[in-house]
Design brief:
The complex is a heterodimer of chains A (368) and B (140). Chain A is mainly α. Helices cover 74% and strands 0% of the residues of chain A. Classes of the chains: A mainly alpha (368), B mainly alpha (140). Chains A and B meet through helix 2, helix 3, helix 4, helix 5 and helix 6 of A and helix 1, helix 2 and helix 3 of B.
Chain lengths: 368, 140
């Protein structure tokens, strides 16, 4: 892998400019026009633009093969998305364009799976499958032109449009090149044997175990909350993962283990969460004791509130580690805890859009 | 190892392709599909960042984008239906009479290649020969 410090920005810029110009000129030949449409020339130019783009990707972000399967799948789905997207743009027949768009959506869903977002993948397929079927109905209803038609066989300013679109994409990619940290540093030095998902199954089950234990505290009375048995067992379970005073000797805490893999960004998040949890364990049990012993009368609600907050933190740490596996439940937690207002607004938007669509498409008899 | 940059690149290219299609095509339905493709590129970006940072905010935002895309689809198709009822065409160029003041109208110079279907003349056999008649099926 080339050292990104040695890649001059000039070479990257030439690659991007070349790819953008080739793609724009290729689309000039590919886009529908009444005559002199040269598909072969356009395809050749488009493929060479893609080649330059792949060269940009490889020189800039590297092609190290630590993980063959995801590498191959990524290239497969990326090629599918870009290829069928091109077909959608240059296809005369809107029905065939809709089929190409269906394949774009499927390829993007494959990329979602690689990115550990199975719920989003399913949602995208369901929503867009419906959207594409409705689009098909519209094509069947509205465009029953048999021969050449203005809307299908003409393009509006193909050269300028292509330059604008691909120029924009090229600028975005150049900004990406300038702002992203070099990829080589942390991918090649990935120590063998170090787990990529640092929270092990045992630790996660310990966290969830502690979370259920904390949930039981909701219905506990004051004596049970104050008993050493409750606080001691909960603390031991949590601190065996994140480290602390009561952790058994000889265990390597999550934080100490994760400092080895700090280059991986996900790990950094988990370290932060683990540190926050460690701090919160102490404060929570202090709060419980002060609320139940020192306060007069004993403030059980406050103690339970503190325990509830601790439980949320535990669940977040346990869930984030299992991003792919527990995707739906953690996504639900995130939506209904952090983004509740957004959910409400999205629902409102859907309602307004439904009313608007009915109002627009409604045929008002003969009055108008 | 596939890095964040790979996914961002694919997202940017999808967005650029959709932009080209939206700017150049004239069929309403194709333009709509191209806009949806731009949204796909954006969602891909968000999901990639969600993976990169190890939290789920990006995926939540992606869900919201899908909601907005569904709203947009409903409204856009309703608008197309109305426009089609008035103009009898899905051509966006048919509505250039509502363009801004001072903008020159677009006039299509190149004529369309009309394929004129040849009229359905009867086929006559060469004079002096018996026409080849289809054999009649035997009727019982």
């Amino acid at each position: 892998m080339p050292d990104p410090a040695q890649i001059p920005s000039q070479a990257i810029a030439y690659q991007l400019i070349g790819a953008g110009l080739l793609a724009a000129v290729g689309f000039l030949f590919l886009l529908p026009r009444p005559r002199h449409r040269q598909l072969l020339v356009g395809t050749f130019l488009g493929v060479s633009a893609l080649g330059l783009l792949v060269a940009f990707l490889v020189t800039r972000f590297g092609s190290a093969t630590a993980d063959w399967v995801s590498t191959i799948l990524f290239w497969f789905f990326a090629a599918g998305a870009v290829g069928f997207g091109t077909v959608l743009v240059v296809q005369r027949n809107p029905a065939r364009g809709a089929i190409a768009f269906a394949f774009v959506v499927l390829s993007t869903c494959g990329l979602f799976l690689i990115l550990a977002a199975p719920f989003l993948m399913a949602t995208t397929i369901i929503v867009y499958a419906g959207a594409i079927i409705v689009t098909f109905l519209f094509v069947l209803m509205l465009s029953h032109v048999s021969g050449p038609a203005d809307e299908n066989d003409r393009s509006r300013e193909p050269l300028l449009g292509g330059l604008a679109g691909f120029g924009f994409a090229g600028l975005v990619l150049f900004a990406l090149h300038q702002s992203l940290p070099p990829a080589s540093a942390n991918t090649t030095v990935a120590t063998p044997g170090l787990p990529l998902a640092p929270l092990t199954v045992v630790e996660r089950s310990a966290l969830l175990d502690a979370a259920t234990h904390l949930a039981e505290a909701e219905s506990a009375n004051r004596e049970q909350l104050l008993s050493t048995e409750f606080s001691q067992s909960t603390r031991e379970r949590l601190e065996s993962v994140v480290g602390g005073m009561t952790a058994p000797r000889g265990t390597v805490s999550l934080q100490q283990r994760l400092t080895l893999a700090q280059a991986e960004p996900r790990t950094a998040t988990e370290i932060q969460q683990a540190a926050a949890l460690k701090k919160q364990i102490q404060t929570t049990f202090d709060t419980v004791e002060t609320a139940l012993i020192d306060a007069n009368p004993p403030d059980e609600a406050r103690a339970k509130q503190a325990l509830r907050e601790l439980r949320e933190q535990v669940v977040i740490l346990a869930g984030t580690g299992g991003l792919p596996a527990r995707n739906v439940s953690t996504l639900g937690l995130a939506i209904y805890s952090e983004h509740l207002l957004g959910v409400e607004m999205a629902g409102m938007l859907l309602l307004v859009a439904t009313i608007g669509a009915v109002a627009i498409a409604h045929r008002r008899g003969d009055a108008t | 190892m596939i890095s964040l940059g790979h996914f961002l690149t694919v997202g940017a290219v999808l967005f650029g392709l959709g932009l080209v299609g939206f700017l150049t095509r004239r069929n309403f339905i194709t333009m709509f599909l191209c806009a949806e493709m731009m949204l796909q590129g954006v969602v891909l970006n968000l999901v990639a960042f969600s993976r990169y940072h190890g939290n789920l905010s990006g995926q939540v935002l992606g869900l919201f984008i899908i909601t907005v895309a569904a709203c947009e689809a409903g409204l856009a198709l309703a608008l197309f239906l109305t426009l089609y009822r008035r103009g009898r065409s899905l051509d966006s160029g048919a509505w250039q009479s509502i363009r801004e003041i001072g903008v020159q109208p677009t006039i299509d110079v190149e004529p369309l290649m009309k394929t004129v279907p040849s009229p359905d003349y009867p086929r006559l056999p060469v004079a002096g020969r018996l026409p080849v008649a289809a054999e009649e099926t035997a009727r019982v």
